[in-house]
Amino acid sequence: MKMKLSLFIGLFFILITSCSTEKKAQKTNVKEGEFIYAKEGRLYFPDGKELALWGVNLQPCLSWEYNSLFKLVGTPLEADSLKTSTDNTLVEIEKMNMDLIRVHLTPTDFTDDQGNLVETIYLDMLDYMVAQAAKKNMYSYITFLNPGMSYDIDVEDPKANIPSYVENSFLKGVDRKEIIVNKDVFFKSKNFIKQLLNRVNPYLNKQYKDTEEIALWEIVNEPVYYSYDELKETQYYTDFERWTGLRQVDDNKENYSKYRYDLVYNYINTMYDVIRETGAVQPVVWNCNWNRMIKNNKDVFDAIGASKVEVVSFCNYPGQSVLKKPYTKNPEDLTRYDFASFFKKSYREKDWYGWVFRKDFMKKAKVVYEFETFYNQSKYLYPAQVDFFRAMGVQTASMWHYSMPRYAPYRNGSHHLSLTSTPAKAAAYTVAGELFKSLPLYHEYDIMSPTEKLTENYMYSYDKDLSAYSSKEIYVHAGDMIGEKTLEPKKGVRKIIGFGSSPLVSYEGNGMYSLDISKNEINIEVQPNIEQLKPHWGKDFLVSLVTKLDYDSQSVMTLNIEGWSPENSELLKVVNNKKVKTAFLNAKGLSFNAVPGTYIIKKL
User: Fold this and answer.
1) Nearest-CA neighbor of 397 among 361, 373, 380?
2) Which SS3 state, helix, strand or coil, does residue 210 take?
3) What is the pTM of this model?
4) What is the pLDDT of residues 413-443, one digit of tens each?
5) How many angstroms separate the CA atoms of 542 and 591, rounded?
6) Distance from chain centroid for Cα 461
7) What SS3 class is residue 390?
């Protein structure tokens, strides 16, 4: 049967669904010694060391962040205010030993109706955030396309239409499922990506594509695909009808699956080529969403596996399916929920995350674009997730999403991590980061005990609600490391990060603390104590103060570090950048009343 197609439609489908299905990954000329690169299914630092980056999603450059968080605590929409908040946040996550930030951009914040960049406060904040992170030796992971932010979030109305910044942006009103099938959005998305990659970041004086501290480019955040029955109810169904006509095949679900394979495969490869044609060499990621996404989308995953991208990403939210929907209106405290069965299914079953071990996906590197413990303030679950991640081959992981200090004390709900407002959870996150960088990729995973582990170098326990990491250089713990079946520090350790007490530090406060130990000096930083006014798992989201930060109360801290005593040391407190001599308490060991702040113990 012959069909009369318009020239435009014909050209479009030659490009998107009828072009060559060459399945070998395109090679790029990686600039040796400058950029992160991919090779044979793994990611590497420029010096050739295997990549491992640990961090958070951070998004002061999104109107969603401003409208749903900053604005509600009275923060003005001003560059200076948002930059200060960004700086303060980077300081916090640096103290938790992170080296990665991820952001999924909402182009409606800074593009016009053709996908051209528009100079707005949010584009300026993107420039600033990437630059400030780079100055702290942190990498950025940037996702280009995220249409809107109106899915379930921690606001009173999870379906609220939070306005974006540019009224006539090309993505305004575009549903997530349209990203791949909408011809107009497709062409304008290419324009946007090219313009961003070629943009000169004024804070770094270099183009985005040439920024070595950008680790990864991801094309779309959480792409969703029309089913056969859904497509029939849209204007895009005629495109499938044309496809069947060109091939003279029946209009049915089986052929729709073949059509969707071609559509996804060629969309990914076309966008991959757009990125490479600008000269950008950083690895490119395709987002594979959440567990069980593959169940009704095998054709999509087959297309992803055959595509040119070097990296695939997935998320991980133990607890999200436990609660009644919508979860924002039905919160529960899941801190004492045992997720052992969740990890067993996640590792074993192909419809969960077991697809990562398929032959085609073993040729691609893996990253976790988002994860969280979900209405959960436990001290074990982050390290337990890391054990699972590394067994799955994951090389970067970024929690969704970090609570910036400007609004963190007012926040609770499903996703909440803060150095000061959630100190126990923050300590566990720091433990998890050290574990993430030490466990080998694809290590043997213990599915018989996925929430209880005690080894020479790390531990996590659902039963005790504890976790710790110990090496020759660093000792990190979340909870009291006293008694049986806990993890002791190694002799001569040089850095301690803790919540609670250990054989080296006894502390009566309930904030985090850190010690840097050298031959003649111990630098100590004590974070504020907290008073919990409302539960972290509640739904009082930004209505009033949830966590009161106490910077004034004294708590006794006692150090038990070999070679140090009150007789050979002096204690100084740093006040307004001045060192003020302070007295030790009359007790065994280096004991003093610690008010949140910075202290120095020096050898006499």
Assistant:
1) 373
2) helix
3) 0.93
4) 999 999 999 999 999 999 999 999 999 999 9
5) 38
6) 23
7) helix
